[in-house]
């Protein structure tokens, strides 16, 4: 079964597999409805398309399929993933990961491996994942890391205290500085983050994971 929210892609892949002797059902469905389709049909193997393998919760349909139909082997079909994307797919119970631009022969090999209970992922993807995990590079789209690097260690501490709901007086007392100095630090943090209030700063820090990074001791200059 091939499930993707792009009908043309699902039908084209299904047609190519049919020509190679496979019995295939193509279906177009958003991520929210994919699990329902697969659970109701219970195919041997499901190719489940995604355009955003790094998005939180994107593999929830895989979790549900494996919970309700554990015998179904799920192959994720998507763009070149990050190491986290591959890890998240397998953590959810996927049997493999196939790139959108893979040749049909590669897709077929992945299907055969998944049916045999083996992990199906191209060696090049694994090599890239291991290489990045062993030698991590700063991700240009990592907003939390980018924002954190804009702040000094003291400003990071101020932001953490703001997120904890401390007012200027408490921030000053906790850091051993004058209230006027604390107020200046707060204003600088708001300016650097591009927000207009403490509440916005706290929300931005939480949304981008900046607070988690700050708690881990990763600070900018």
From TrEMBL:
Keyword Transferase applies: no
Keyword Cytoplasm: no
Record-annotated HTH luxR-type domain positions: 144-209
UniProt keyword terms in alphabetical order: DNA-binding, Transcription, Transcription regulation
Gene3D superfamilies (alphabetical): 3.40.50.2300
Residues in Response regulatory domain copies: 1-115
Residues of the signal peptide: none
Family annotation (InterPro entries): CheY-like_superfamily, Sig_transdc_resp-reg_C-effctor, Sig_transdc_resp-reg_receiver, Tscrpt_reg_LuxR_C
Highest taxon listed in the record's lineage: Bacteria
Protein name: LuxR C-terminal-related transcriptional regulator
Organism encoding this protein: Streptomyces thinghirensis
């Amino acid at each position: 079964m091939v499930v993707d929210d792009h009908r043309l892609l699902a039908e084209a892949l299904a047609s190519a597999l049919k020509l190679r002797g496979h019995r295939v059902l193509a279906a177009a469905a958003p991520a929210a409805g994919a699990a329902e389709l697969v659970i109701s049909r219970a195919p041997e193997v499901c190719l489940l398309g995604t355009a955003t393998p790094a998005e939180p919760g994107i593999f929830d349909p895989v979790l549900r399929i494996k919970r309700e139909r554990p015998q179904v082997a799920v192959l994720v079909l998507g763009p070149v993933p990050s190491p986290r994307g591959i890890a998240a797919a397998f953590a959810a119970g996927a049997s493999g990961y196939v790139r959108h631009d893979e040749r049909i022969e590669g897709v077929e090999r992945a299907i055969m491996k998944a049916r045999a209970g083996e992990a199906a992922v191209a060696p090049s993807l694994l090599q890239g994942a291991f290489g990045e995990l062993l030698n991590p590079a700063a991700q240009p789209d990592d907003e939390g890391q980018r924002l954190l690097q804009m702040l000094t260690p003291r400003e990071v501490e101020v932001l953490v205290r703001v997120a904890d709901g401390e007012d200027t007086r408490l921030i000053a007392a906790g850091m051993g500085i004058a209230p006027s100095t604390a107020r200046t630090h707060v204003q600088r943090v708001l300016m650097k983050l591009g927000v207009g209030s403490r509440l916005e700063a706290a929300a931005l820090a939480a949304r981008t994971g900046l607070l988690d990074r700050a708690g881990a001791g990763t600070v900018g200059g």
